[in-house]
Known about the structure:
By secondary structure, this protein is of the alpha+beta class.
Amino acid sequence: MTADLLPRTSPLDPYTAAFEGLPDAVRITAEPFVAMADVRVDPSSGARVRGAALPTTPNTWVPAGDGRLVWLGPDEWLLTSPGTAPEALEAELAEALRPAGGVAVDVSAQRTVLRLGGPRVREVLAKGCSLDLHPRVFVPGTSAQTALGQAGVVLLALGGDEFAILVRSSFAGYLATWLLDASLEYADPALIS
């Protein structure tokens, strides 16, 4: 059986209609499949990933090609790329990192991505996250490995009232249900049965 016969599906596909039914105050969308690679390299090597310097400030991310390069630890980063096949991303990074003694591993199936936005999104996130999400503190380019509800996530501040949440695929359904429940108070009362 070839891979062409097996369509990619997201653990969040069953939540699409519920996400679309949310008010403008809180918007949630599941991003289509995003390739991801874990990058390990000595930060002093000068290695670059897709033209971007490795962010060495803890809890930050930078744009890298069509995706984001997220600091996870002193010598570990996560690269996302919505426009590249996972195996191609891993091969590209292996070639780029080899001279610096670095490695990259495909972790695309490990996490799925949610995009959140709207004027009430910070209040929704604050219901289950202990971080200070005030726009003066959690500014664009900031990231954090944290808990949201009972799920471990990587939270990225994208700008304005826009966030990306990377959650393990096995916790995606739980987190989607939690976010829908946390958003309920901002829904139109006529829509609540």
